[in-house]
Design brief:
Elements lengths: L1 E7 L2 E6 L11 E9 L5 H6 L7 E2 L4 E8 L11 E4 L2 E2 L5 H4 L10 E2 L12 E4 L2 H4 L1 E2 L10 H9 L3 H11 L7 E5 L3 H12 L4 E5 L3 H10 L3 E3 L3 H11 L5 E6 L4 H10 E9 L21 E4 L4 H13 L11 E4 L3 H9 L6 E4 L1
Parallel strand pairs: 11-12, 11-14, 12-13, 14-15, 15-16, 17-18
Antiparallel strand pairs: 1-2, 1-4, 3-5, 3-9, 3-18, 5-6, 6-10, 7-8
Helix pairs in contact: 5-6, 6-7, 8-9
């Protein structure tokens, strides 16, 4: 089969490798219907050192089950499924508490445990707990928009949803979203679902912020740093916002977040942090009684109701995809996302 590997910063190649096989009775083999490139894939694209063996890439997938191990009973050959970006047994203590990304028996794609998902086929560990069937949809005949929205449930939309969930967004609140990438725009859509009254999107790329307005943003602020902070304060009578959904992952975005959060507010980070240390003292969090939340989204916890929202037309998060490439064209897809000529790239096998 064909699969995506990264050999160093900016060095993405499509290789031919052996098809995956069942290794454990808890595995399933899934044939790709759609995959995609994630904003977090750009972090190694910028900084991965030379890696002679290549890094297997990708963690978002919808597909059709080809084969299941002996212990997999909830899905069977031919089922159309969503593959969450982290696999989990969905039964351990952390899974039962709704944090499947901390599963005792779980893990991540693109690691020694499981190859990446930008490929024609994927081995899914812990398939019984991970895979969720999409009812009454034939992917071969499905509308492209529906497939795109279902694909966002593998990661991007539900990561934005997790940001709003962990920020405890409530009806009538003021919310700010930092970042106009696909996750930030998804966080806008999620905040709207949670009933936020004012949603301030902090981003400077008009095509993206226009989609953010369509998703529910009431205000757009292009300025960053102190000027951006002041504009948010001006919009909120100097109070700041109840919740900040930080979807970037850089220190300057975090600094902006604690500048605009109101006393007793919550900063929820879902942008993968590209820093190890950040202020938490009196001038940032402590003095405001502000809380810091967020982390890797437990997509599996949110999947069933989100699938129904998509199927019922309540949400259409697939609009974040603005380019589609074949698997052979994935290197060009990375380049397009890197130079911001594409917001989020979908991959067809």
């Amino acid at each position: 089969m064909k699969a995506t590997f990264m050999y160093g910063a900016g060095n993405v190649r499509i290789e031919t490798v052996a098809d995956p096989v069942i290794q454990f009775p808890t595995d399933a083999i899934v044939r790709t219907v759609r995959a995609c490139i994630c904003g977090s894939d750009l972090h190694p694209y910028h900084s991965l050192p030379d890696t002679p063996g290549g890094l297997s890439m990708g963690h978002e997938l919808i597909g059709v089950v080809e084969e299941v191990g002996a212990e997999v009973k909830t899905v069977t050959k031919g089922d159309f499924v969503i593959v969450p970006f982290a696999f989990s047994d969905n039964t351990c203590v952390f899974c039962r508490e709704g944090f499947q990304t901390a599963c005792i028996h779980g893990g991540w794609y693109g690691t020694p445990q499981a190859a990446g998902l930008q490929a024609e086929l994927a081995r899914v560990p812990q398939a019984e707990g991970s895979l969720v069937k999409v009812p009454s949809v034939n992917p071969a005949a499905a509308d492209e928009g529906l497939l795109a929205s279902l694909l966002t449930l593998s990661d991007v939309y539900l990561t934005g949803y997790h940001a709003a969930h962990m920020a405890e967004v409530k009806p009538g609140q003021n919310v700010a979203v930092i970042g106009d990438g696909a996750v930030g725009l998804s966080a806008v859509l999620a905040a709207k679902q949670f009933g936020a009254e004012r949603i301030i999107l902090m981003g400077r790329h008009k095509a993206r912020t226009d989609l953010g307005v369509e998703f529910g943003a009431t205000d757009v602020i292009a300025e960053r740093g102190a000027d951006g902070v002041q504009q948010v304060l001006d919009l909120t009578n100097g109070e700041g916002v109840h919740a900040v959904l930080e979807a970037v992952g850089y220190l300057n975005a975090y600094e902006q977040a604690y500048g605009i959060v109101r006393p007793a507010g919550i900063i929820s980070r879902v942008g993968v942090p590209q820093y190890e240390e950040a202020p938490i003292g009196f001038g940032s969090l402590f003095g405001k009684n502000a809380r810091l939340a967020g982390g890797p989204a437990p997509v599996r916890a949110y999947l069933e109701p989100a699938i129904q929202q998509v199927l019922n037309g309540v949400i259409n998060p697939g609009k974040v995809f603005d380019r589609t490439v074949t698997l052979d064209e994935v290197p060009a897809g990375y380049a397009a996302m890197n130079d911001r000529t594409a917001l989020k790239v979908m991959v067809t096998p």
